[in-house]
Design a protein that fits this description.
heterodimer; A: 295 residues; alpha+beta; Alpha-Beta Plaits; 2 domains; 4 strands; B: 233 residues; alpha/beta; six-stranded mixed β-sheet; four-stranded antiparallel β-sheet; 10 strands; globular
């Protein structure tokens, strides 16, 4: 009989004898992984949505009057003085009128009585990709609003702010659920192993007395912890994937959700979640065993 | 019979004392050397300290004072793997048996061999042989908790000798046995001794050491006194 044969036999024996508590721990680990992974997935997708919205982000600076060529150059220099931008485009009053008329389509007749210069001239500024965080866009907007001849700066402030705070809230939930995952994995597994140890104290004491090494006693429990982590997190991820697919199919019709492409975790993220769960469960198991072996 | 005066010493106890809180002296300045392959009888009234002495020898407890060496090694300094290896070479039949009552007889006997990673075929054969010697063949698959005290005592003894240890410590091996079974038990211990194992038997059963050619010492109030020198060669 070799070490691993003896250890695996012991694992089988432990699982057979304590399967109700093992099963409860397995479910708890799965649920913890599911909760954490769910919020993390939502957070990830929200970040993607944010990036996508950021790609379309532009600041519109409405001007008091139409700038001449020289003033356009002055304004361009002032804008570039803040930071590099991707694009600056001047829209004349006439151009604004044409755009508006085109947007009205068949109803453009309503503009017939309006003067062709009733809309203000504006500058469309597309910031660089690295200028996308809210604080920077806000700073940029404040800067632009202080330029001479500026009426107003628009970039969908309210919506972006709400989105920003939503993602902040999500990141806090992800952190909390991550904490929950750590607590449940370590403490539940540690508690289950402790119960097993208490239930089999006589046997473990005897094993020590007949010369079992600490590894011989400890390894089966460590393997149990690893199995809890592996199977628990796998079930959690599979459940989340099923939920994700269901939501995708259920809400695949026209609607706000169809505007964005939601994606599941990359394989390396799944692998990382599995490994972290396994490590946490192994730590829980190991700590219980160490307490016993020190006794 | 092995020669008790060989150079090799299995057990060396020098001025060993053991006290339990608050101030109960179980052993006082016990000094004794037990040779390799010696059979040694430790007698004394109940509460004299026999079990305590055996517990110290198998490192289940540690002395308050003094030195204990097994096979030339200070057992108080042994930890981890070294301690485990040493325990594999010591077979102990405890007075309270320390059996796993929800396991079968065969599993209980096999446990000491499993921790030494013996081959399953070898374990099975050894278990069968021992159960036959101790008249427990029909109890091979019986649940240990369902056995009588006498049967459990024999299972504990079988487990103690199963791994062919070099030192066997037996605490009251015949307390629950009839004369015939006592004889079987003593035959088994003698066989182990003849094979080279040092055997220490703690007992107050006068019948099992009355005619023995081996050394007998008595514990009285925690102190060791020589009753009879061994004459076995």
């Amino acid at each position: 009989m070799n070490f691993w044969f003896a250890v695996l036999r012991q694992v089988g024996r432990n699982i057979r004898q304590t399967w109700p508590s093992q099963f409860m721990t397995f479910l708890t680990v799965s649920l913890s992984v599911l909760i954490f992974a769910f919020f993390y997935l939502v957070y990830n997708n929200m970040l993607n949505v944010g990036n996508k919205l950021g790609d379309d982000l532009q600041l519109i600076v409405y001007l008091e009057e139409e700038p001449g060529i020289e003033m356009q150059e002055q304004l361009r220099r002032k804008i570039l003085a803040f930071d590099e931008v991707e694009n600056i485009r001047f829209i004349s009053k006439l151009e604004a009128y044409e755009r508006f008329a085109n947007q009205l389509g068949e109803n453009r007749d309503v503009l017939n009585d309006m003067p062709r210069d009733f809309l203000p001239a504006s500058i469309e500024v597309v910031p660089m990709k690295d200028l996308r965080s809210l604080s920077q866009v806000k700073l940029f907007s404040d800067y632009l609003s202080k330029l001479p001849g500026t009426l107003k700066v628009q970039y969908g402030q309210d919506w972006i702010e709400r989105f920003y705070y939503f993602t902040r809230l999500l990141s806090i939930i992800v952190l909390l659920s991550g904490g929950l995952l750590i607590l449940t994995s370590v403490f539940m597994v540690s508690y289950t192993i402790r119960l097993t140890i208490l239930g089999r104290q006589a046997e473990l004491e005897l094993l020590k007395l007949v010369g079992a090494t600490n590894n011989y006693i400890r390894t089966p429990f460590l393997i149990e912890g690893i199995l809890q982590g592996l199977f628990g997190s796998t079930l959690g991820i599979i459940s989340l994937f099923s939920l994700f697919q269901w939501i995708k199919i259920k809400f695949s019709g026209p609607g706000i959700l169809s505007l964005f492409e939601f994606s599941f975790f990359q394989p390396q993220t799944i692998f990382t979640i599995l490994v972290i769960s396994i490590v946490l469960c192994a730590v829980g198991s190991y700590s219980s065993m160490q307490k016993f072996l020190r006794m | 019979m092995k020669d008790d005066n060989r150079n090799g010493t299995m057990i060396e106890m020098i001025k060993v004392s053991k006290t339990y809180p608050p101030d109960v002296y179980a052993l006082r300045d016990v000094s004794v050397s037990i040779a390799d392959a010696e059979m040694f009888f430790l007698t004394g009234m109940s509460g004299a300290g026999k079990t305590t002495l055996l517990k110290l020898l198998c490192s289940m407890e540690y002395p308050s004072n003094g030195l204990i060496e097994i096979g030339g090694r200070d057992i108080q300094k042994m930890r981890g793997k070294k301690l485990a290896k040493m325990r594999q070479k010591i077979g102990v039949a405890y007075q309270d048996f320390k059996l796993l009552l929800d396991r079968t007889v065969a599993e209980n006997v096999a446990i000491s061999m499993e921790v030494s990673y013996k081959k399953p075929q070898l374990i099975n054969k050894r278990v069968k042989d021992l159960l036959e010697i101790l008249a427990l063949t029909d109890k091979h698959n019986a649940i240990t908790g369902e056995l009588s005290r006498g049967e459990q005592q024999r299972v504990a003894l079988a487990r103690a000798v199963a791994n062919s240890p070099t030192l066997i410590l037996v605490d009251e091996p015949t307390g629950n046995l009839d004369a015939t079974t006592t004889a079987r038990v003593m035959q088994l211990l003698t066989k182990c001794n003849n094979s080279g194992a040092t055997v220490v038997i703690a007992t107050h059963d006068h019948s099992i050491y009355r005619d023995t050619p081996h050394r007998i010492m008595e514990l009285r109030n925690g102190k060791l006194h020589l009753v009879r020198e061994g004459s076995a060669q």
